[in-house]
Structures are given as C-alpha cells and as structure tokens.
Amino acid sequence: MKILLCHTYYLQRGGEDCCYEEERDYLRAHGHSVIEYVRHNGEMTRMGPLSAAATTIWSRRAAREIAALIDDERPDVLHCTNAFPTISPAACYVAHRRGVPVVQALQNYRWLCANGYLMRSGGPCEQCVKRPLPLAAVRHRCYRNSFAATAAVVAMQAVHHRFGRYASKVDAFFAPTQFARQRFIEGGFPPERTHVKWNFVSRDAGVGRGDGGYVMFAGRLSPEKGVATLLEAWRRDPALPRLVIAGDGPLADAVRTAALQDGRIDWRGAVPLGEVQKLMGAAAAVVMPSVWYETFGRTIVEALSCGTPVVASRLGAMAELVEDGRTGVHFAPASADDLASKVRAIVALPADRLAHLRRAARSAYESRFTAAANYQRLMEIYDLAAAHTHKRRRPTHDWRPPPAPQSGHAAANPEFVLMDA
C-alpha cells in the first residue's frame, strides 16, 4: 500500500509528534510505501497576522503541493495527523476531490476548542463543544491569549466544521480513546465514521522491578498536567515518599524551587525515553495528575509497559486507561489531599498485592497498547475509509477552496519535506 502521511510538527515536541513518527515507522516496517508531507509550526512566526490567519483556514501552498504529490504518487490513502495550522484542512479537501480515501486522526480537541484542550481557568471546559459558532473562545482569548489568533482558529472551525463541510471530506476519523470519541460525536462528528484507535509505545523496555523506593512524574511541566497539584501534595504531606520528576516546560522554575526546598523531590529535567522507562520500571507508581481531559495519556501506557501502576486523575481519558484497583488507582482531579492519600496507600501495599498490580499493568499493555495491535487496527480503519470512498461520487481533478479571508501579505515559503521509503 502507498500511504501519504501529513503532519505539522509542534514548536515544542510532544506526544502527537511521537505518535506520528511511530505510525510512520511501523507502516514502513510492514512493507508499505510511505510518503511524508511534513510542515512545522515555526513557519507561522515568519508570516504576518493576516497571512497566518488565512493559512490556518486554507493553506494554498499545502493544497498545491499535496495535489501535486497525489497526482505524481497516486497514494492509496491520505492519513493526516496534525494539520494545524500550516497544512490546514486543505489536505483533506484536495485528496477527497481526487478520489483518495481520507483518514484524519483526532489527537487533540482543536476542532471543538480553540486551545485544543477543552480547558479554561484551570479546569475542563466544554462551553464551545455544541455551539454552532464558538464565540466564547474569542471572548476569552482561548488560543495563546490572543484575540486575533483565537478568531482565526474559530473562523477555521466555522468555515470547515461547524457548517458540516469538513466531515464530508473525510472518510474515517479516529480518536485515541472512547472518551475522546464521544466528545467529538457530541461536537457534531459522524458517529459511524468516528472510530477509536489507541496509541501505543513502540519501545518496549520490559517489566521493571519496582524497587526504587520512589514514585514518579514524567511529562511536560505545564499547568494542564497538574504540576501544581503534584507539588502541593508533597508540600502538605511529609509522609510521602521520594518523588522523581522527569520533564521540562514553563513550570520548571516552580519545580526547581520545590526541589531545593524539599529533599524528597528529585527533578531530573528533560530525560531521554530510554532513561524515563528505566526510572518508571523502578518506581513504585507513576503519578498522572492532569487537570484536563487528555485525549490519550502516553505516560500511562509507558508506565503500563514497565509493569508500573498509575495514580491518575479520575478524569477523561485517564479514568478510561487506568483501571481503578487493578492497574492503578484514581484520585479526585486537582485534589492534592486525595492525591497524597492514594500515593500513600499504593506504596503501603503488601508486596504480593503490589506484584499483582504490576502484573495487571503489564497485561493491559500487552493486550491493548503494543505496536502489533495498533497496526492491525489502523489497517481496519484504512479499509473502512476505502469502503466509504467507493460510496461517494466519482473523483475529479479540479478543486476549489472554501471561502477564506484574503491576505495582503506574502506567505513564507520554506521547503516542505518529501521522502519516499
């Protein structure tokens, strides 16, 4: 099979970038010919505000270049991960008009929420999910705390999704959890074409011993990840064990200060994945205190692969991925006291009970989150997309973009990445 993958990399590398690369690599490992159309969010910093807004709604450059790729390469499917903002929905429109099955991953909540998190003021927010025009996002400046930038995102949502055009161009969507899928369906996505495909961890470090005498947090040090709740739990409760923190981000100064004031807190900064997995394997538990829904929770699966139970917020995807009492425990979201209580409880378990949790954690990984299981599910979704393509009108080679604001500024034109395995 020949597959055209489209992805926009984030300014700061995150889970979506990892998912894209892992899917690309395992498709190639299974003998598929993979063509990449890759862009970078940094391109937007070289554009004027009007050009950036117009590109977010409809990227003429992406439409032109993807059309040429499809005409030259004749892919069997277009698989788009993150198209925001430099590729835009143009990729799906162009492929649709050329009769190529279109698959769109839903790895964040951007189509439902301007900031992509379904979060505002430190907690979950679904105010815009069912609104035909999410003007509340503009009022609250939900994207980058900017009126203009938020308006551009809302305009993209309105032009493509809120009026039903975008969904008609995509043959199959997939979200990484049932919880995320339900949010998208409530936001207007077609349930019969919106599927679930869990993410996975390609590097299996094996089961750890859990004998390190500490619990661990691994992830971006940012407000939505519940870092404040984590630090507050250790500040309040002197009985908690050593806490190893691996990660970096905007709250790094707060973590550094906490580590200087509390000898139990060991901040390692940004750590390579292999080292993270070693630390997870030796940990008694991994803490996932996010205060937003999470579309998936890659850290959870990394912990499960090491056989390490997870102490997770009883919220969104985390509550779905962690089986309370079997592969970890849940605590009340944003509650430092409940987090502390659950950490104390899990580290105080008898050795046989903790061993049982560790076996169950590893079993959950092996049954749901391996590369093999993920590959099989992706092939099923490609087949569903192809079947849906056969039902729509005959392909044509002309296309027109949807109405979009015209920019008076010249867009930046960095080279796009094209590779064929």
For the record, give the distance between the C-alpha atoms at the N and C termini, rounded to a whole number: 12 Å
Coarse structural class: alpha/beta
Radius of gyration: 22 Å
Number of strands: 15
Shape: globular
On the 0-100 scale, what is the average pLDDT? 90
Write the CATH fold name of the largest domain: Rossmann fold
Number of alpha- plus pi-helical segments: 16
The CATH homology group name of the largest domain: Glycogen Phosphorylase B
With strands numbered from the N-terminus, the spatial order across the biggest sheet is: 8-7-4-3-1-2-15
Per CATH, which architecture of the largest domain?
A: 3-Layer(aba) Sandwich
Total domain modules: 2
* Percent in helix: 40-55%
Indicate the low-confidence ranges by residue numbers: 395-399, 404-421
CATH C-level name of the largest domain: Alpha Beta
The largest pleated sheet is described as: 7 strands, mixed
Beta-strand content bin: 15-25%
